[in-house]
Amino acid sequence: MAALRPLVKPKIVKKRTKEFIQHRYVHKFIQSDRYVKFKHNWWKPRGIDNRVHRRFKGQILMPNIGCGSNKKTKHFLVHNVKELEVLLMCNKSYCAEIAHNVSKNPKAIVERATQLAIRVTNPNARLLSKENELTLCACHICVSKTIKLQKKKTGVLGLGKKQKRFSLTTF
């Protein structure tokens, strides 16, 4: 199948790439805009005298409604196979993106997307990690089976506190 090309490719305008940092007096997070050693997750300043809340010049900016991304250039998150059918008629305008919390069947979503000719931005999402987990599990099973076989070959005589090992292998 040929690669899908969009009808119109709108330019993605990133209105703000810098993170919004907090300005708050909380035991551990004291003015994280001034000190690097403090975390800076966003909290809305609610104090009546807070200079960020009052939007003084030269202070940290607060997120506004205008800071969001354009809806046309945003990704369409897909959580299951049924949600792909929304993009059936507009597959040249929009592409799908597999959500991060899809753990059961990302392969099925990718297969259905190829059938419907919908482009997926992250078709390998969680596939590699799943395969790695499966190989790790398989290795763990193999190792545990070999250990069990070795235990069967060498028996342990229970003599109270003193245990003697004997081997069943013939010489």
From TrEMBL:
GO terms for cellular component: cytosolic large ribosomal subunit. Transmembrane segments: none annotated. GO terms for biological process: translation. It comes from the Eukaryota. Keywords: Ribonucleoprotein, Ribosomal protein. SUPFAM superfamilies: Ribosomal protein L32e. InterPro entries: Ribosomal_eL32, Ribosomal_eL32_sf. Pfam families: Ribosomal_L32e. CDD domains: Ribosomal_L32_L32e. GO terms for molecular function: structural constituent of ribosome. Belongs to the eukaryotic ribosomal protein eL32 family. This is 60S ribosomal protein L32.
